[in-house]
Specification:
Layout lengths: L2 E4 L2 E8 L4 E5 L7 H6 L1 H6 L4 E5 L16 H14 L5 E6 L1 H12 L4 E7 L17 H11 L11 H9 L3 H21 L8 H4 L8 H5 L5 E6 L5 H10 L3 E6 L6 H4 L1 H19 L6
Parallel strand pairs: 3-4, 3-5, 5-6, 6-7, 7-8
Antiparallel strand pairs: 1-2, 2-4
Helix pairs in contact: 3-4
């Protein structure tokens, strides 16, 4: 897998296809394999785009520096990666925190971004819109899974506690959890303890300058894809109402990870929006 060093951190990436640039950014605790597993990069490339996926700092095969995990710092990583790879202004598809990075990049480095497609993103700067964030259904499910092996994650979202708890699992607990989460979840589970010695857990929930006012000031086209059973539907409504160029759509039969939970619908939606966004720009598709 090719790699590039940006801001002193080695990031691993993959590319396929030719045409307007699309960059897929995964969520915290995930890695680019989530896109590859579902076939999304190949499906987008087949429609005449050049697709880049990469592992965020601290994730997948990329380096794990002790600090640098806010959305602002990740946006600067994106800017540097964009320059190193010689990309044109890109359509960013970001899941969860990946979408926050996409919006923050559009704000700080608009020359790198043609448009952003969010997938079920929570914005720390919009925490007031989601008063029940700490008890989101995703965290409740995760808490119940860890309870099965005798580990208490606490009642509210706490990534640092999750990482530290994962780092102290016994081999027996790890084996039991891997059985519970299944084949897809095993790679995710094995990555958690690697983040325990970083500031990632706290920094990804920092506003980092991306306030509600700043979010509302982003003028690039934004597609807000939120899942039918998402814990963040209030955020979806806020984005649609406050961003000047935002279109919202609900992906059925999913609750936070539509690319896996409803791959067919998610893929069709992303490709449809990419083709629509690329058409007004005059960017030639190679199909």
């Amino acid at each position: 897998m090719p790699d590039v060093v940006v801001n002193g951190t080695r990031l691993f990436y993959q590319q396929s296809g030719e045409g307007p640039d699309v960059v897929l950014i995964h969520a915290v605790t995930s890695n680019q394999a989530v896109w590859v597993f579902t076939g999304l990069p190949d499906a987008i490339a087949a429609e005449g785009f050049r697709v880049t996926t990469y592992d965020l700092r601290g994730h997948g095969a990329s380096d794990r520096p002790p600090t640098g995990y806010t959305s602002a710092q990740m946006a600067d990583d994106f800017r540097a990666l964009h320059a190193e790879l010689g990309l044109k202004p890109a359509f960013v598809v970001g899941h969860s925190f990946g979408g926050v990075i996409g919006i923050h990049t559009a704000l700080l480095h608009p020359e790198c971004v043609e448009g952003v497609i969010l997938s079920d993103s929570f914005f720390p700067g919009l925490r007031h819109v989601e008063p029940n964030f700490g008890r989101s259904n995703v965290w409740v499910d995760l808490q119940a899974t860890f309870n099965e092996v005798g580990v208490d994650l606490g009642e509210t979202v706490n990534f640092t506690r999750l990482f530290q708890a994962s780092a102290t699992l016994t081999p027996e607990q790890t084996k039991a959890l891997e059985t519970l989460v299944g084949p897809i979840g095993r790679g995710w589970l094995r990555q958690l303890p690697l983040l325990a010695q970083t500031t990632c857990g706290d920094e990804v929930l920092a506003e980092a300058g991306l306030t509600a006012e700043k979010i509302a000031s982003v003028t690039r086209p934004v597609i807000a894809l939120y899942d039918e059973f998402s814990p963040f539907l209030a955020t979806c409504r806020w984005l649609e109402q406050h961003m000047p160029n935002c279109t919202a759509e609900i992906i059925p039969e999913a609750k936070h990870l539509a690319v896996v939970e409803n791959t067919v619908a998610f893929t069709a939606s992303v490709i449809g929006h990419l083709k629509r966004l690329a058409a007004p720009t005059g960017l030639p598709l190679t199909v």
